[in-house]
Amino acid sequence: MRQIRFPWGTALLAVILLAVPLSPGQDSTVEVYNLRHFTHPNFTRIVVDVGTLREYAPMESRDPGSIYVDIFQARLNPIVREEAIPSKCDYINLIRISQKSPGTVRVTADVDFSRIRRYQVYHVFDPFRIVIDIYPQEREAGPSLSPTAEKTPQPPQPAKSGYSMARQLGLGIKTVIIDPGHGGIDPGCLDPSGLKEKDLTLDISLRVKALLKANTKLDVILTRESDIFVPLENRTVVANQKKADLFVSIHVNAFPDKKRRGIESFYLNFSSDPNVNATAARENATTTKTIGQMDKIIRKIVQNSKIIESKELAEQIQLNLVKYLSRQYSDIKNLGTRGGPFWTLIGCEMPSILVEVSHISNAPEAQRLKTEGYRQQVARGIYEGILAYMQSLGKG
Ligand SMILES: [Zn+2]
Fold this sequence. Notes:
6-stranded mixed sheet; Aminopeptidase; 8 helices; Immunoglobulin-like; alpha/beta; globular; binds zinc ion; 5-stranded antiparallel sheet; 19 strands; disordered N terminus
């Protein structure tokens, strides 16, 4: 492993070495079957669908400017379009993919480095894919009111002091994304009776949507409305494209310890708590080893993310879930609000949280999850949490 240090101070793992065991005579190449890209107001994401774990090496050249990634033991499926010009993006001229040599596929983004603030290359599992996020230089929001004003953005202050970014800017909430965890080929966690996390999360999400639609003027968008598979990073893409103001991902937890039960809410952060990392690893469909690699990425991201607002949103949802469930059910356990390394929250440009509404692995909680009444009360708690958060912004 070696590290490249880019001129703007971003360190990136340059060669990701992943052991791929092979039997003699076996075709070692995988087919790269898709290249996707999306441009948001704040960044462009390029996703290469590889399907199976492969080594890759991100590199760059300055003249002409390009960022490229070589994927080894790979061949390009002939149906993949080899060139694409991203629209609404003045810092990437062309995205290209080609068979560089018999065993190597190269993805290239021709860029104007003077317009780029930073970029990062990382991978996601299930199915394996390589992601390139490219962030343009900050654009001037408008003429500065005070010529002596600091150009460097000040770090957000804790929400309780009344100085968080959303409060300073008086931002209202118009669009809420509800993200039902898992779906399609990914059932999430299961219990022996056939209860599936993906069905519970969709049911609860639809109930939250119904409550919000009936009682507020908010636009409510679900990342899926049926039993389909949506890759984790696409959920963020939906949220960013819709310029959503809040992102709430709904999940049900499971632990080997069948006695563990309760409700907990998370916002994006690194964590040293093994229980948090075990939950995140399961939700990311990875091992806890990958969590170590994610730490580096997350440490960079959280500096610029809406961490204070996300924490506040998580706390309001946690508080209201426990409050509303306790009105009808005994022994509701509050496991609190914490930071955790969840892929589904990475790249969100708005306050974003993930809530584990109960444990499917705990028999009494699984029993409750089977009833409509409990799921409705869970939805009510999340709904009340969203309202409480909005009211805390003075715009509810
Ligand atoms: Zn889940």
